[in-house]
Amino acid sequence: MRLIFVSIFSFLIMAIGYSQDPIHWSYSSKRLNDSTFEIHFTASLDDGWHVYAQKQPETAVSVPTKIEIGANPLFKLKGAIKEIGNMVLWTDPNSGIAANEYSVKVDFVQMIVMKAKIKTNISGSIQFQTCTDEMCLQPKTIKFSIPVMP
């Protein structure tokens, strides 16, 4: 009976620990001039966790981060989303499979050009996967909405 109790208690503690999200997203917009803005999607990661870059080696099995921005007639996207952070090419010692990943913090930055001087929201979704060197959580998709005020 004691073994069953200890097993159930250990499982519950483990489940509570893994139910907390090891990645924390923040969003902001930065005005560069009257019509151009940088939109920042910043991921801060708990110790020991990483998130994957948008571009992965061909043999990678990890889920790359994908940011989708919804269409809006008040702005247009300018260029591709850039990544600012310390990207590491990690190779699994057992399988030899490589992945581009970020630990601690990464800032995904999209430039936009406003077509009118009207307040609007940049909205969409981010798909990502967080892992440690031993395990991965299921891929997750979150929605965002970022106000932009020209």
Helicity range: 10-25%
Low-confidence stretches are 1-18
Please state the average pLDDT score.
Answer: 90
Which structural class fits the helix and strand makeup? mainly beta
Question: Architecture, according to CATH?
Answer: Sandwich
What's the number of structural domains?
A: 1
Instruction: Determine the CATH topology.
Output: Immunoglobulin-like
| Succession of helices and strands | HEEEEEEEEE
Q: What's the β-strand tally?
A: 9
Portion of residues in beta strands equals over 45%
> What Rg do the Cα atoms give?
19 Å
Distance between the termini: 65 Å
Name of the CATH first level: Mainly Beta
Tertiary shape: elongated
Query: Which sheet architecture does the biggest sheet show?
Result: 6 strands, antiparallel
Total helical segments: 1
SSE topology sketch:
Layout: H1 2-19, E1 23-31, E2 36-45, E3 50-52, E4 66-69, E5 75-91, E6 98-114, E7 120-128, E8 130-131, E9 140-148
Antiparallel strand pairs: 1-2, 2-6, 3-6, 3-8, 4-7, 5-6, 7-9
